[in-house]
Structures are given as C-alpha cells and as structure tokens.
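Below is how a single chain appears once it has passed through the pipeline. First comes the sequence as given, then the structure the pipeline wrote out for it. We keep one example in the README because the format questions we get most often are answered faster by looking than by reading.
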Amino acid sequence: MAVSPVTVGVNVLLLGALYAVVAIGFTLIFGVGGILNLAHGALLTVGAYTAYYLVNAGIPVWVTVPIAGIVAATTGVVLYKGMLKKVADNPVSVLILSLVAGLIVEQVFLVLEGAQPLVVPGIVDGGVAVLGTDIELNRLIVFAISWLVIGALFLFVNETKTGQAILATSMSRKGAALVGIDADRVFTLTWVVAAGLAGIAGVFLATFQTVTPLMGRTPLLLSFSIVVLGGLGSIRGSVIGAYLISFLDQITVQYVSTRLAGVSGLVVLVIVLLVRPEGLFGRELTEG
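Resulting structure:
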C-alpha cells in the first residue's frame, strides 16, 4: 500500500528536527575544535541505554531525558580530555581514536545486553489525526522539544558572552587567546553541549524505535551528510541540511525500499564533496 504524501511530509517535518539536534552537536565540535568526532553516534547510544536502564528502574521517561544528556555529556568530556585532546593537532589520530572509542562503546553494550532490541516507551501515549494522518503525540512532543533546544542553542551562541567566546574561538584560537578567552575551557564546554545533545537525541530516537548497540551508526552517517551539505561548522546549515536529508531519506524509504535507509545521505555526501565541498553555508559556526 502506497504511503500518502501527507504521511511522508509529516515524517520529514518531525524527523528533520531530531536529525538537526544530532547534527548540530557534530558540527559544534568541528566548528570550535576542528575535530570530526566519529564517536558522536556512540554518545547517542549511551543516551538511549541510559534511558532504558532508568525506565526499567521505575523512573518516568521524561525524567530520563536530562539525565541521559548529563551521562552522555560526561562521557563526551572523558573522551575529549582522556584521548582526543592529546592528539587534537593530528586529524588522522583524532579520526582513528574517535572511531575506536565508538566501537568500544558498541562492544560494551553488546556484551552487557546482546544484540536484541530493547524497548523504551514514549514520553506520552496516544495520538492525534492531522489531515487524515494519525500522528503519535510522542513524536509531536519530541518535535517541539527539539525545536526548543535548537532555538535555545541559537540564542546561547549569538546572545551570551559564553556563546560569543565559542564563536570567537571557532574563528581564531590565537585571536580568542589575545582577548583573554580560555580555549581549553571553551572546547570542554563545547563537548559538554554537543555530547549532551547527542544523549538527549538518543532518548528521543529510542522512543521511536528499539534500542540496540549499533543504533548510533545511521544517525552518525546522516549527521556527517547533513553537516557536509549545510557546511561544516554552520549551525543554520545543519538545520537546513537536516530537513533536506530527512526529505530524501523518507522518499527513499517510503517509495523505494526500507533497506536503503541512510543511503540517500551518502549519495548527497559524495555529490556535495565533488561539486561544492564547502557546503551550502560555508564553514562558519553561526550566522547572525
């Protein structure tokens, strides 16, 4: 049975916001520290499993959202301080170590839980009908919270002194140091924010689908495609890129084959790198 265009449009709208939250964290780390963090998907997995364990301990799902963000943020800072900071000037070493770290996280959960899918309930139950299409209230809540997070991040970066310090550091570490900005403090804060976003996104994704050790791989691939399309380091580009990739992914999954989920993002990645490697909005962290 063919899926209606309304259903596809709703899925694009709702999933695009979640993709944007994941991709913004990825692009923040690159924009400020110049690091392509291949463990970003694993941080999402950490958030999802945190929610699963807490829910099974009797804690409501909505309470697990900030806790998962904190756990993922702590994991991200440990990864940065313990490993990646030491080789930050060597991009190849950063890629290898972050990839290995992500694989280690996957293996830990494989050992602890096996490969069987685990279930995290939705934040809320029930659904509503929109233009003849039934939509889970959980997805609407995730959409609303995702946009609140995105809006708050825009305001934080553009309107606060700490956000301006992040922006200044992303433009020039030496220039930022000259005006008294502690680059290491800024890098650490960026990792806290980016990893926290990944952990929160992990909980949201877990309420849509099952939790597995490898669940972070597709979001990582999509995030990479999104930030390359939007421009590495561009928050606005990540949001726009997230919706473009969400649209292409839904068209592919709904009208071609569910087995091709994520493939459209890889195709876009190749095309953008060949035709416009700087992406749609270049490599700035933010635009006013």
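The mean pLDDT is 86.

See the next section for the split statistics.
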